[in-house]
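General statements about sequence and structure are easier to judge against a single worked case. Part of our work consisted of pairing the sequence of a single chain with a tokenised description of its backbone. The amino acid sequence and the backbone structure tokens for this protein are reproduced below.

***
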Amino acid sequence: MLDQSRIDALRHTAIAPQKLFIDGGWRDGTGETLDVISPIDGQVLTTLSRASAGDVHTAIAAARRAFDDGRWSRMAPAGRKAVLLKLAALIEANALELAVLGVRDNGTELGMALKAEPGSAAGTFRYYAEALDKVYGEIAPTDPNFLGMIHKTPVGVVGAIVPWNFPMMIGAWKIAPALAAGNSVVLKPAETASLSLLRLAELAAEAGLPDGVLNVVTGQGSVAGEALALSMDVDVLVFTGSGGVGRRLLEYSARSNLKRCYLELGGKSPNLIFADAPDLEVAAQVSAMGIFRNSGQVCVSGSRLLVEDCIHDDFVAAVARHAAALKVGDPLDVNSDVGAINSLTQLKGNLGFVETAVQEGSTIALGGARILRESGGYYMEPTIVTGVKPDHRLAREEVFGPVLGVLPFSSDAEALKIANASDYGLAAGVWTSNLSRAHRMVAGIQAGVVHVNTYGGPDNTVPLGGVKQSGNGHDKSLHAFDKYFDLKTAWIKL
């Protein structure tokens, strides 16, 4: 049971002006500071250092020195494992503090933040700590006069750029396997969600991570992110965010050292409801949470609800009933089910999608407006839009907000056609009692993750990655190591 008085005490804790974390210590950025505005009430929490390109180059140089001298890259696997396990324990010990800090910064409801941020991050660091000493090289089946050996070696310096919706969770998906493989990391958090990752760097140092192995540079993506992507001394770049930024990062790779770029670029995920779903009431409740948790600010959110036409009206009514029962409000109030939109800019964008949907002929079945304006924060009603067609903007573009578009279908073939009529391919959901249909849908839907009779929740044992314009490469699971190891062949004549 969460203690509201403890949460309120943490809510009012002053936050000192933040600095950059480079080479094991704090330093001011050479640029001007950047205000941190809380989406809870629109008030300034603190300031961030706005890293210049020079600051980023300093961080990269520190990471390169740390890698080259072997303080981490050549540490025995048991040593790296011990440090990462200690970091996981420190994250758990400070979970409430980290969660409240993150919520003040990005607006996620606390119940979800505790599980998805420090809870998930601790599990991720522990998973890769336990995995790192179980990664073996290979002996090739060669002519007996030769020995073919395949070594897995760390790539070097990893640049990581992470978004504002789940900074610790997504940050850990990238930092943990990169560190476990022996690399050094320069991390660039989002401007509107940097505080918890700066604290994570401090905990990593406390856990014994050597200086320079993890560096955090904050500020504008157009300056700090660009400098990281254009660097000739960053070996791999990993990113979660928008398609537009992802395209620029690929361009920067081509303009610099052809660094490998692994990009997770969001989605417009279809959630298919067949009349023979095992329990339509459960499907309605889970579908509502699959889009409205964290105010829809989830990359895999089921933002396109595809409903078999014979149950369309009743099912939409059920989803609307569950959505209307959600309490939207102060994300640090334990009674709130849904928190704030991350920024005023994001809120205005969400409302713009609703306006366009009406102009295109759709109907607002629930919500559609900004609420709690008097708080000074950024809040929006859970919104359901019916009468959406596959070519409408709401069916094509990622909103990244609490806006659900509903599209009917009449057959399996039509359901697949609508589901795949998207430039994205990150996630999907299928609700059916027909085992054959479920397998056909899993095979036919163009997405990296397909949920069946559930939505959300895959753990670290399975990969997350997309197809089409949802990106490339995978976070989570042992497959994430593929981004952070090079393969080196030794061909030996005996």
About this structure: The first helix runs from residue 4 to 11. The CA atoms of residues 45 and 236 lie 33 Å apart. The chain has a mean pLDDT of 98.
